[in-house]
Amino acid sequence: MSARVTFVLADLPTFNEPYGGTFAHGIASMTAMLRRAGHRVNLIYRTTLPTRAEFVTQLRDADPDVVAFSTITHVFPQVRRWIGWTREVLDVPIIVGGVHAILDPEDVVAAPGVNLVCTGEGEDVLLDLCARLERKDPIDTIEGTWHRERGQVRKNPQRPLLADLNALPDPDYSVFDRDRLYGASLGIVSAMISRGCPYRCAYCANARIRDSYPNSRVYSRHLSPGRAVALVENLIAGRTDTRLIVFNDNILYPNRTWLREFSKLYRERIGIPFAGNTRPNLVDDEIVALLRDAGCRRICMGVECGDEDIANRVLRRGQTNRQITEAFLRFRKAGIETVSYNIMGSPFETRRTLLKTVRLNARLQARFLNAFLFYPFPGTEAHDLCRENGFLTGRHGENNSAVVMISQPGLSEIDVLFTQRFFHPLVRHYARLGRWPGVLGRPLLRASDRLLESPMIPRRLLVAMKSAFDGVKNR
């Protein structure tokens, strides 16, 4: 007898453009494991808010034995409501996993209707759950879960990480409607060939997640180069419209030895341009050459803050502005497009440090710029810092592009939103000033700094107008 598992995923954008979602690689991996064991799987993937009637109809059509919600912190208030709707119409186990379940299991297990919280990777947890349901065994002692029944919570031991990703089957993406996914019409396909990250940035969930495992030393894992290339081959098999592979890994390569082999195999067996992520402190001439030779078209790197004290003391980035500048220059010289990621309004920021981030980006000449609002994810070092200093507001936003989540002296919400909303034109402005000769450029740069740090600019009005023009949903 096989179990019917229905995944529910909320992916709610904050912009008013049509959005079909993206691959959720964890769900694809769990789907592959479940189907290999003979279980049936389907997915309710919501990129818009459903009515209760719409959601209940989708659930009843699926007729599940298990409902598995995957959630991040931003959208959990919506997911909590959907869990309630599910419990009203179905008497089956409800399990909740995803990053928020790992970071804040107390919050998740308290949601009415939840039976199990998956506190780590879900493949073996779901296999164990389905096997117990088949045998009609109790489900309260599954490793890697918290179980709640009649108000009592049992906190089971964490299940160790799977150390060897090569032991997993290729993810099964057939539960996704590939033709409606974001970027599908442009021939863009996303892939993931690793799990975890070796760094401990204060604002990121990775450090907290890694520390939750008994074998945390193996947290950052990559497929072997050959297996990584084979995964991409399977992902694009039978499709002739693929124009770009986007690797969603935190860091595309674990070391240069791995990258040397991957570069050769990818060039020989795939040959499709790709994009990925790295860190400026991991970049040198050989790394750039290997990526270029493999077919890298675009590389994304975290800048985060142009003030080195905040970047390293507060955010724990462990990189210098010189490393950042040199890394972007190396890629630009190699003909590889660069993408800059930035955080606006980190703890202890000021108008001046925000402008330092703008000015650093003006020097980088990145092809694409991203400016996100600081989000104090529960369980992170940055969240603890904000709590200790009284910065937490209790506000909630469905992503890190719409709502300022902390309040701190010396920097208003409007200061942060103004810099974030106008980040692109401000960077372009400083880039133009930077091209003036020093005798003229330096006075103009100082004048711009004074103006943008002053209260003379009608920031609130400009933010309201820009948000309305961009269609940003301030929720």
Oligomer: single chain
Give unreliable regions as ranges. none
Helix content: 40-55%
**CATH superfamily heading of the largest domain:** tm_1862 like domain
Number of domains: 2
Indicate the structural class: alpha/beta
Averaged pLDDT: 94
CATH architecture label of the largest domain:
Alpha-Beta Horseshoe
Spatial strand sequence of the major β-sheet = 2-1-3-4-5-6-7
Instruction: Give the end-to-end Cα distance, rounded to a whole number of Å.
Output: 44 Å
Q: Mind telling me the C-alpha Rg? A: 23 Å
CATH topology (fold) name of the largest domain: pyruvate-formate lyase- activating enzyme
Strand fraction: 15-25%
Shape: globular
Report the biggest beta sheet as strand number plus sense, adding barrel if it closes.
7 strands, mixed
Helix count equals 18
According to DSSP, the number of beta strands is 15
Q: Which CATH class of the largest domain is shown?
A: Alpha Beta
Could you explain the architecture of this structure?
There is one protein chain. This protein is of the alpha/beta class and 475 residues long. Helices cover 41% and strands 16% of the residues. It has helices spanning 25-36, 52-62, 76-89, 99-103, 105-109, 123-135, 206-211, 225-236, 256-269, 285-294, 308-314, 321-333, 351-364, 381-388, 413-421, 423-434, 438-453, 459-470, and strands at 4-10, 40-46, 66-70, 94-97, 116-118, 145-149, 152-155, 188-191, 194-195, 221-222, 244-247, 274-278, 296-304, 337-344, 368-373. The strands form 3 sheets. It has a 7-stranded mixed beta sheet with strand order 2-1-3-4-5-6-7, sandwiched between helices. Helix 2 (52-62) crosses helix 3 (76-89).
